[in-house]
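Input record, target 12 of the design panel.
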């Protein structure tokens, strides 16, 4: 696959440093370009369809780049009650979100949209994450010392909270970080 993509311009349509690092880990040479999109989601959609819609919207913004392979993604956390948890507005919301996730399992969904030769193909990867019980001191420490405001569900599994709070996961670890690399690689092999 890497040989086939060598002479293709690859664009990651995301400003996430974690997605950039994960895509680089696949051995791909790529550029980062972010285009403004309106991320309106129909409230009647399921979490899977909502995250897919956002990823497609991000890819649609690159329709004029017909000579490139575009990779866009969006990640959400879904609580045990089915509530979609995006990025928190502030530290208080991050504390409330982590308090809600404490001692429970939740679902992490990442939708990837690939624009190639005028067609958008998508997939949604699911990972179930089980949190140990967290006390308020631990939650406040994490929210104060790390950067939960740019992360769906108010946490990064690759940070301190992932080291102390994750009981287990079912599914791909990198999906929780923000880009399901194994599934993405398999999809790119089919396309290119």
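The sequence produced for target 12 reads:
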């Amino acid at each position: 696959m890497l040989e086939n993509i060598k002479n293709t311009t690859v664009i990651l349509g995301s400003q996430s440093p974690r997605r950039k690092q994960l895509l680089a880990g696949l051995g791909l040479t790529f550029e980062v370009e972010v285009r403004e999109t309106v991320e309106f989601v129909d409230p009647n959609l399921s979490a899977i369809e909502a995250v897919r819609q956002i990823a497609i919207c991000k890819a649609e913004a690159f329709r004029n780049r017909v000579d490139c392979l575009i990779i866009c993604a969006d990640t959400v956390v879904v609580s045990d009650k089915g509530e979609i948890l995006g990025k928190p507005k502030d530290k208080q919301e991050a504390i409330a979100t982590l308090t809600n996730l404490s001692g429970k399992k939740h679902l992490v969904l990442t939708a990837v949209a690939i624009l190639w030769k005028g067609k958008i193909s998508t997939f949604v990867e699911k990972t179930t994450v089980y949190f140990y019980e967290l006390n308020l001191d631990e939650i406040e420490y994490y929210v104060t010392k790390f950067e939960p405001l740019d992360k769906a569900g108010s946490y990064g599994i690759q940070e301190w909270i992932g080291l102390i709070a994750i009981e287990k996961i079912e599914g791909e670890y990198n999906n929780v970080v923000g880009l399901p690399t194994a599934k993405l690689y398999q999809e790119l092999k089919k396309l290119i």
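Residues 99 and 139 are 7 Å apart (CA to CA).
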